[in-house]
Design goal:
0% of the residues lie in helices and 50% in strands. The termini are far apart.
């Protein structure tokens, strides 16, 4: 703003004086305010100076952007801000061109605490939910599977999407008992372990050893081998007891037919090995008694002489 003063001398000479008056703007308001990844409550309005917002635990920082209504005003407090768990107060100071005029905008951002939820909402084996599944039950024992089944597929779903799961996928089954741990780790780091037990039945119907004994001893032909299922045991003519003992290769298998036999009455003994899954294999021992060549009398008497 300018004003002029003219001075005219008695002689008529003139001089002009000019006065420039600058009136400074006192607008200390914002035209816009935003925080990346954050929704303000209430919606921004230039005349509203206090805001709140809530962000999840995963949001660790935000970038504050603001624009003043008056281009000559200055705002401080913008830029990247680290967010701690809980309340975070972010203040922006707007200083008008008339530096005596200021306005403060405040945003309180509450960052949620990390989730402690480490429960499963579902646990599947080979595509089917485990029988009796309950998120509070940590251990499950499945029905034994056949010897021909060599693997299972474990899948799990966390109750909280921020949790992570390890221990799922395709698992190789060994013969016998198998245990697998599924670990659920909450966002907070707290862990919960679920356990699956499954037994793969054995189909081992082999003998580990075969013992055939008598007194006096005989001869077993051929020598024992688990893959050989037929044998011959030869004894002398006066042997009346042959003891046959077969031991299963697998401790879960059973053997029937073990016992003591009289080779004068029994010529064939069959040992049956039954595996855990029901598979059976027969081993045969043929008992051969040699014929006596003794044609002498032990005693001779004639009545009256």
């Amino acid at each position: 703003n300018t004003a002029t003063v003219k001075v005219k001398a008695e002689s008529g000479a003139e001089k002009t004086y000019t006065i420039t008056i600058t009136r400074k703007n006192n607008d200390a308001t914002l035209k816009s305010l935003s925080l990346s990844g954050v929704t303000l409550t209430p919606t921004f309005a230039s005349g509203t100076t206090s805001y709140t917002a809530t962000v999840p635990f995963a949001t660790t920082s935000t970038t504050v952007s603001a624009e003043t209504n008056d281009t000559k005003a200055i705002v401080t407090g913008t830029g990247s801000k680290t967010l701690a768990v809980g309340e975070n107060t972010i203040s922006l100071l707007v200083k008008a061109e008339d530096t005596n005029i200021t306005k403060t905008y405040t945003v309180t951002v509450t960052r949620a605490a990390a989730s402690t939820n480490n429960y499963l909402s579902d646990l599947k084996v080979d595509g089917a939910t485990v029988t009796g599944f309950n998120k509070n039950t940590l251990e499950y024992t499945l029905t034994p599977v056949a010897a021909t089944k060599s693997s299972i597929v474990i899948a799990a779903t966390a109750e909280d999407t921020t949790a992570t799961i390890t221990g799922t996928g395709t698992k190789t089954l060994s013969t016998g008992n198998n245990s697998y741990n599924i670990v659920v780790k909450a966002q907070s780091g707290a862990e919960r372990t679920y356990k699956i037990n499954v037994k793969r039945l054995s189909n081992d119907a082999l003998l580990k050893s075969l013992s055939v004994t008598s007194n006096p001893s005989g001869s077993l032909v051929p020598s024992f081998a688990s893959g050989t299922v037929e044998y011959t045991y030869t004894v002398g003519p006066h042997v009346t007891a042959v003891t046959i003992t077969g031991t299963a290769n697998a401790t879960t298998s059973t053997v029937t037919g073990n016992g003591t036999y009289n080779p004068q009455e029994v010529s064939e003994v069959v040992l049956t090995v039954k595996a855990e899954d029901g598979t059976e294999k027969n081993y045969t021992v043929n008992l051969v008694r040699t014929k006596s060549t003794d044609n002498t009398l032990k005693a001779l008497s004639v009545e009256g002489y």
